[in-house]
Each structure stands twice: as C-alpha cells, then as structure tokens.
Write a structure and sequence with these properties.
Helices cover 36% and strands 22% of the residues. With 281 residues, the chain is α/β, with parallel strands linked by helices. The strands form two sheets. Strands 1-4-2-3 form a four-stranded mixed β-sheet. Strands 5-8-6-7 form a four-stranded mixed β-sheet.
Amino acid sequence: MKNLTVLFIFIFALNVAFASDNIKKDKLKDANVTLSHEVYFNTDKYALSTEEFHKLLSFIKATETVDIERMSILGFCDDRGSLEYNQKLSNKRANAIRNIIAEYRNSDKKPEIVRTNGKGEIALTTTEQALFNELRTLNRKVTIVIAPKKLIAGSFYGEDLKTGDLINLKGLNFKMGLRYLTPESTKTLKELTAYLVKRKDIFFTINGHVCCTDNGRESKDKETGKLNLSTVRAKYIRDYLVKNGVDAKRIRYQGMKGQYNLGGDASEDRRVELLVRYISK
C-alpha cells in the first residue's frame, strides 16, 4: 500500500509538471514577453519539495529557447524569525534556485545578466488571524523574472514589436543623481522620438530606473532633494516625447526605483525602459 501511495504521488507530480510545461509553451509562442515563475518553500527550508522542483524544471525547459538579457532571482521569507535570520534564509533560497537553473538549463542562449538577491521577510498585510498561515505560505518563495532581449536603440528599431515587450533603451542614460540625460544620449533620444512619432499604433509605459541603492530603494533627485529620481527620469523622457510630437494619450510613466539593476556598470542602471502596453490595429 505504501509503495502504491509513493507511486501515485510521483505520477501526480509529473502530471503537474507536464501540464505546467504545456501552458508555458503556449505563452512562449510570443518569446518577447516578460516571463516569471514563483517557487514556494516549506517553513525554514531552502531545499525544494518534489512538486516545486518539477514545476521549476518545467519552467526551465519552457524557456530554453528564449534569448535572455536579464534574469532576476529574488528570495523571500515570511515574517517569522529575526531580520538577520530571514535575510540569510532568503539569500539561501535565491542561490539554491540559481544553482538549479545553472545545472538544468540546457541552452546556448545564456543570460547576459543574472541577478540573485535575498530580499528578507515580507510583512503580513492582514490583522485577521485566519489568513496568517495562508499568507505566510505565499511569502515563503523565490520569484524568477526573465526579460528577453528586445532592443530598439541606436540604429535598429523593430517592426515586429508585440504587446508585453520590455525594451531596454541602450544608449539612453542619465547623469548621476539627476533627471537629465548624458550628452551622448541625445542622439538616441532623437531617434527614439522619430520612431515613436511614426509608430502611432504603439501605446507604452516608460519605466525609470536608478542605480546603486540598498534593497532596491529609490534615489534622491539632487536638484530638488525629493526621493523620486526614477519617476522624474521617466517623466523627463515622457515630456520630451510629447513636446516633440508623440501623443500624450499613448504614454504612461512610472518609477521602478533601484529594484531591477542590470548588474553591470552603474551608468547602465541610470536608464529608462519602454514597456509596450498594446498595439492598436
């Protein structure tokens, strides 16, 4: 009887993995969308359960053909334990997932940047005792975020853009601590503007970023002293585009703080990205 139970659990886990694989393959027909996956852990553990391991392998297999620019692996804990303990455990969880991906991802398309970060504990957002256990379970996790390569900067502008594309505008960087672009970025901004004036069908969000902050925090604008640098960088680009002929109704903007650093030179993180919300017909 015990052997039959073990066999049933194993078959169930495989079925979950294969079902998840099929779902992700359908989504990956559009290989330019930002992809994510969450792995959940038992209390105080950083080793995966059999079920979570198979789900992760399914995700790894489904993304083998994706040409990845950035992979972020973020570890989290529930609110139990000390801050120091939870920080260490979240790092162990993130590194455990990174090691599994490195071992099992059978692809020549290696990510340019892999960012692994333990984010510590997630505070409970409810005072209802009945929800504590459920929320704590959901907070014991690692989140994997994959941003495929999709560049429209310099001399190349893609005609095959799709909803969900996250475009890293290389060559469009900001002065340290300020909302203003570096002099060498002016040409790229003019090219981007000309492209977006032409492509009236693209509705998009400008994501502003900052570098070099602890735990992905916001940076201070040196000019105003306000803690909103990533947002005002995105707004600066938005205002320039509108002033030069791009319909304001097509544009949204937001600050992403320092949560998505690329892991290279600090100047590369003083940047904006363009997220395609939808393309009208």
